[in-house]
């Protein structure tokens, strides 16, 4: 019986490692695309904005919900956008239920007096959340192009001029820009988030876009052709990532996306673990929901080549990688004992080389991104090594939380769109304490993560029991990652 269980453990463990390996090879392919893209010249047709008849009408949509800490900053930033006032409209799509509505209305009245066409649009319900607000605003939007910014984004004054010009190509449906991070160095949590997002917004977005693979509008810091939104079926609220959903429907209909790596739109990263949890949950569950919704359409699409379909499926299944990481993590301890008790199965333990190769591939991919953003040199490489393993460790600590999000999606469980609290954190001395939107309840996930912390502590002890220390580095990272998440989850409780 125990031998049969051992074979099952090895089979499941091996399958999870193989899936992680396939994911890493897809990332490696995107790296090749990314490097090649750097050698290409941008020959895209562009509007000449010095000619009045080529200046298109643009609507800026600001979907907000209870954002009292950042509304003034946001509105004054948007008011400073350098674009002809007679060709610009601003819609504040305000679903707020607190006193921020009154404060926002006051700022908008002042901006209207300056001659700015800015409207305060309030809904009586939050049907379909952000997607519903964007859809309702679109009904009255004057612009043929729709720029969208979340409340924590601070576009540069020249942002519209840098992006709208590429819509001269009538096939372009979306122009997306890269996110910047105004509080990158605030804490280990913000550094890790910035590290992960930098990889997505450089290697992944550029690597996909450069070869014509499907990419996604990131929910903010991008601009849509209004006709594209309508042609793709408009915004829908049946997934938690309405941006990814509409992106794929638009590209399946033949629209092309353009990604601008060199146009950076600064934004604020979540600074407490509960805020990062809510954001990660929404992104990962939404990604899995979109995989369920789209994979049949991708497989049957006659517009997509085999490579496009393969990368599209890997893109949508990205969040499920946390599930496979969790499997490998949990089974790594039983594997130690199986190896110790059944010596004749030792050959099967060579499958661990898949994990080593996968880690090496991800290390190389992230290094290319890091050195392009931060420069080269021995000192920078040493900082990168510390950052990579810090990211890897914290990501392992989030693997249970994100796996449960994915599991909910595959189980068909629907959940409310939980906004990420904004804190107006701009410098190291700013504090998040006292934020009225902060979720201070201890999640059941934190209790489960505490149990896993103890479990991986047992894994470290097990190495001495079986006198096998091959898994020690992995178990140290697991213990440290879950320790970081657990400690910070309880520390942010009031």
Task: For this entry, give a set of tags.
single chain; 494 residues; alpha/beta; seven-stranded mixed sheet; 55% helix; 10% strand; globular
Anisotropy-based shape:
globular
Distance between the termini: 49 Å
Query: Roughly what fraction of the amino acids lie in strands?
Result: 5-15%
Query: What is the SS-derived class?
Result: alpha/beta
**Low-confidence runs:** none
Return the average pLDDT rounded to an integer: 92
Order of helices and strands: HEHEHEHEHEHEHHEHHHHHHHH
**Rg value:** 24 Å
How is the largest sheet built, in terms of strand order?
3-2-1-4-6-5-7
- Number of contiguous helices: 16
Query: What portion of residues is helical?
Result: 55-70%
Number of strands: 7
Biggest sheet statistics: 7 strands, mixed
Overview of this structure, please?
The protein has 494 residues and is an alpha/beta fold. 55% of the residues lie in helices and 10% in strands. Strand 2 (88-94), helix 3 and strand 3 form a beta-alpha-beta unit. Helix 6 crosses helix 12, helix 9 packs across helix 14 (399-410) and helix 13 (378-397) crosses helix 16 (472-491). The protein is globular, with a radius of gyration of 24 Å.
Set out the fold topology.
Elements lengths: L1 H36 L20 E7 L6 H9 L8 E7 L5 H14 L4 E5 L6 H12 L4 E4 L10 H5 L8 E10 L6 H23 L11 E4 H6 L10 H11 L3 E12 L5 H28 L5 H11 L4 H21 L10 H23 L3 H20 L1 H12 L33 H23 L5 H20 L3
Parallel strand pairs: 1-2, 1-4, 2-3, 5-7
Antiparallel strand pairs: 4-6, 5-6
Quick synopsis:
With 494 residues, this protein is an alpha/beta fold. It has 16 helices and seven strands.
């Amino acid at each position: 019986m125990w031998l049969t269980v051992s074979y099952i453990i090895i089979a499941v463990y091996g399958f999870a490692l193989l899936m992680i390996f396939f994911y890493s090879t897809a990332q490696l392919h995107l790296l090749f695309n990314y490097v090649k893209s750097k050698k290409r010249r941008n020959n895209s047709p562009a509007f000449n904005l010095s000619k009045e008849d080529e200046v298109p009408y643009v609507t800026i949509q600001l979907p907000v919900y209870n954002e009292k800490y950042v509304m003034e900053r946001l509105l004054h930033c948007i008011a400073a956008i350098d674009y002809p006032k007679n060709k610009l409209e601003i819609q504040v799509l305000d679903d707020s239920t607190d006193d921020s509505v009154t404060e926002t209305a006051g700022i908008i009245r002042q901006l209207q007096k300056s001659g700015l066409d800015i409207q305060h649009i309030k809904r009586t319900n939050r049907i379909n959340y952000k997607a519903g607000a964007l859809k309702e605003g679109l009904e009255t939007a004057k612009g043929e192009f729709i720029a969208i910014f979340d409340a924590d984004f601070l576009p540069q004054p020249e942002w519209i001029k840098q992006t709208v010009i590429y819509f001269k190509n009538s096939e372009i449906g979306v122009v997306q820009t890269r996110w910047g991070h105004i509080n990158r160095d605030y804490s280990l949590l913000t550094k890790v988030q910035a590290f992960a997002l930098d990889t997505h917004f450089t290697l992944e977005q550029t690597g996909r876009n450069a070869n014509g693979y499907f990419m996604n509008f990131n929910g903010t810091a991008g601009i849509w052709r209004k006709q594209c939104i309508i042609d793709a079926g408009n915004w829908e609220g049946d997934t938690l990532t309405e941006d990814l959903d509409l992106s794929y429907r638009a590209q399946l209909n033949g629209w092309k996306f353009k990604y601008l790596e060199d146009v950076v739109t600064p934004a604020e990263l979540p600074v407490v673990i509960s805020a990062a949890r809510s954001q990660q949950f929404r992104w990962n569950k939404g990604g899995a929901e979109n995989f369920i919704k789209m994979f049949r359409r991708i497989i049957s699409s006659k517009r997509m080549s085999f490579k496009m379909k393969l990368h599209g499926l890997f893109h949508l299944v990205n969040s499920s990688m946390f599930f496979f990481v969790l499997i490998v993590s949990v089974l790594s301890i039983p594997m130690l004992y199986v190896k110790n008790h059944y010596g004749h199965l030792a050959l099967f333990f060579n499958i661990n080389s898949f994990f080593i190769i996968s880690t090496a591939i991800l290390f190389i991919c992230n290094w290319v991104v890091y050195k392009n953003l931060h420069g080269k040199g021995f000192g920078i490489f040493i900082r990168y090594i510390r950052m990579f393993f810090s990211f890897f460790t914290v990501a392992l600590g989030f693997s249970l939380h994100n796996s449960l999000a994915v599991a909910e999606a595959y189980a068909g469980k629907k959940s409310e769109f939980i906004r990420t609290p904004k804190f107006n954190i701009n410098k190291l001395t700013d504090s998040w304490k006292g934020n009225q939107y902060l979720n201070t309840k201890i999640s059941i996930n934190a209790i489960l993560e505490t149990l896993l912390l103890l479990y991986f502590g047992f894994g470290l002890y097990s190495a001495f029991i079986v006198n096998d220390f091959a898994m020690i580095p992995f178990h140290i990272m697991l213990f440290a990652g879950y320790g970081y998440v657990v400690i910070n989850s309880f520390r942010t409780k009031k």
